[in-house]
Every structure is written in structure tokens, then in C-alpha cells.
Amino acid sequence: EIVLTQSPGTLSLSPGERATLSCRASQSVANNYLAWYQQKPGQAPRLLIHGASRRATGLPDRFSGSGLGTDFTLTISRLEPEDFGIYYCHQYGSSPLTFGGGTRVEIK
Amino acid sequence: EVQLVESGGGLIQPGRSLRLSCMTSGFTFGDYLMSWVRQAPGKGLEWVGFIKSKTSGGTTKYAASVEGRFTISRDDSKSIAYLQMNSLTIEDTAVYYCVRHTCGGCYMNDYWGQGTLVTVSS
Predict the structure, then answer these.
(1) Is residue A108 very low, low, confident or very high in pLDDT (cuts 50, 70, 90)?
(2) Residues of chain A positioned with their CB less than 8 A from the CB of B109
(3) Which of A18, A101, B18, B94 has the fewest C-beta atoms under 10 angstroms from its C-beta?
(4) Do A47 and B110 make contact, defined as CB atoms within 8 angstroms?
(5) Dihedral through CA B49, CA B55, CA B56, CA B62, nearest 10?
């Protein structure tokens, strides 16, 4: 099983600032099949990035994903008020599918 | 429009069984792999298991935490996926999400339901 470790646990930032979220895998993710999700209270997760760097349809370009192998990054170039929430990485390159523990992005 | 609607959640005693349903519309259900993901209160996401489309073999796979207790099935004629949960424990308390994947054997997903809450308590 691939274990995904996300850091930091919490990111306290102000609107307009840059957010950098990390996801490290215990072994290489096949085909870089790594996705990022955003979740807000009481809502289902929303797909942001798949294939490590491909934006979901309609996602603003302030969101970008990068990385390969075992180290992946989600960057939000300029935080908007609606970007605050919990972000999860998810590997779907091999079964069992696994999720990271999440990074909370909160308003400073 | 793709829609996934979970039902069947509620309060259940430890050791009992419960079946969740995921009613779908807006796509050809039989062509897609379907999975279940759960989220315990205040915790992260945990993949529960999946069922492939019949044309991809119809195989199922489960997380170690539910293997042997949970069973995923599908009724392609009704466009419904099921999660049969037996021998429930307090640790199974969670919101259960139904998830559609991008093809019959693909591990990438694209649509989630809104979830149904299962509370296991005496």
C-alpha cells in the first residue's frame, strides 16, 4: 500500500498570498496518477488536479500541480477567500487506492 | 447531468448490518467502475472499495479494514451501486461517498455523491 504524507498539517495564510502544499508517497506513484481535492465543511471533495498536473475542467489557473515519482506539490499562486478549506492528495496508480491525511488552509 | 445519490445511512448498533445504495443518473452506469469512499467525523478520506464494470471483469477490491465484512455490488439494469456492510463496529462510523470513475476499469474518479452518514453506536 502506498502511504501518502501531506505537509504541512495546517497552513495559515492571508488572501493574495501563495500556498504550497506537499504530498510525499512511500513509493513511486505509477504513471504519476496523483490527484488533488479540495473539501469544504459539509461538502464532498472537489477534484482539482489529476495526473499530477492536469487541471480539472473549469479550475482557475491560479491552481497548479507538479511533481513526479514520490514528491508532488499543489500550488495556489494567489489565495482567494473561497480557496480556504482542506486539501487532500490521492494516488490512483495502484490498488489499494490511498489518500493523504490532508492539509488545512486557513485564513491568517 | 451526472448525479449520484446515496441513501440507507442512519444509526445502527454494533454488530448489525446495513446496506447503502447509490442511485445514479445522467450516464450509462454499466460502463463505469464505481467505488465507495468514507470519512469518519473530523477525519480524512478512506477508500473503502470498488467494483469494475462487467466488461472490465466486474471484479471487486476492498480496503484491508473492511475486507470480509463489506461487499460492493451493482445492478446495471437499475443504475444502482450497493455497499453491504456486516459486523459493523464503532470505527465504521463515517460519511460514505459513492464515487464514479472515468471508465470501466479506470482508477481515476470524476464524480462524487454528497454522502450518507452511518453512525454505529449502542
Answers:
(1) confident
(2) 47, 92
(3) A18
(4) yes
(5) 20
